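Hi team, as promised in this morning's meeting, here are the two structures we talked about. I've kept the exact order from the run log so nobody has to guess. The first one is mostly here for context; it's the second one we should focus on when we meet again. Sequence first, then the predicted structure tokens.
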Amino acid sequence: MDGRLVALQGRLQHQFTQQQLLARALTHRSFSAEHNERLEFLGDSVLNLAVAALLYDRLQALPEGDLSRVRANLVRQETLHQLAIALGLPDLIRLGEGEMRSGGSRRPSILADALEAVIGAVFLDAGYPEAEALVRRLFQDVEINPTMAAAAKDPKTELQEWLQGRKLKLPVYRVAATLGAAHKQTFDVECEIPELGVVERGIGASRRAGEQAAAAAMLLALKSKGK
């Protein structure tokens, strides 16, 4: 096994039983059809649950809305990008030649997604307790305080709070299409609110950015209609 992956497992404090999971977590779609996007999808959910539990423990005086905003601050791309750099993921991510030449190994969206994929891989390899423990280790040196709730809300958080305030279910996001070459793709994402029968779309350089753009479009549409 590549010595660099052995070292990464030491930094993660998790030894993989299924080594292929770690390899896939570090494989971008531009490199192979066996890429990390499904693991990223899984890791995103594990990350959100683990961070929610962490905040529930640490910030016991904060109400639900403020906890949601602090969590949004912690799981946003910028934060995950820095954590991925600290783990050394830029030197380990496997990219196609075009993506590598364009600086993909340092691109925040790619590294944030890879970190989520690694979390998803740990979850599949050893279960939720191990994945949660990893998330808590990743965030142990990140400053977490109630003032983070005052940060500007991103569109997804604002839309979620708008819906919750009206007792409506959360929106459904789906990738409608991927556009462009593998090393320079954009994601066309739909945001649907089934209870209201409305769908809006947004485009971004990553799935996460596309979701934010779609949420922003949905907020604009709802507010313009006075819903």
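And here is the second protein, the one for discussion:
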Amino acid sequence: MASVPPTGRTRVRRLPQRAVYHRDDIYAILDEGFLCHVGFVIDAQPFVIPTNYARQGDEILIHGSAASRMVRALAAGVDVCVTVTLVDGLVLARSPFHHSVNYRSVVILGKARLVSDPGEKLEALRCLTDHIVPGRWDEVRQPTEQELKATSVLSLPLAEVSAKVRHGPPVDDQSDLGLPVWAGVVPLRSLPGAPIGAEDLMPGTPPIDLNRFDRRRP
């Protein structure tokens, strides 16, 4: 898949060697994450709201209460900045100045649209649900008309987007290499724990398969 041409707003200027513009790499970061942060401005007041999301083709989907400030603002066409960040490790150097974090991040800019077509909205909600747990949509009760009315879905095109990635060991000053201080990388990874079933589960309900939550890269 081709790269996304950087714009004046998405071109990485600080440490440009960490920039990633290839769609496959950008989409892989989005597909692995759960949480995004949505930034927007209302009456000169900036807001940054954490929420879950899903990627559907060349767009990112966000949903929320139809009455929420974020949903109403984005549906009205305000400029929006959506970010997703995955932390892969802590980079410990021999000097605090060179401590860092290994990460993969994506920044998306643009204007969102309200998904109003009923069929498209239902498919978007399926995508959002299955992004959390693959196949979940087909095994749960489908939303009622009242639930659909109370929920809005927004779509943001992945047209003005870029990623930034930091990986590898610390970069210490040559003069610090002789210090007896441990330096290296402590990998971090999000893994599912043992499921805790609801107290009111129906008897005989099969347990959830933890393999469905595995988002680890090969």
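Starting points for discussion:
The chain is about 15% helix and 35% strand.
Residues 16-167 form a domain with the Pnp Oxidase; Chain A fold (CATH 2.30.110.10).
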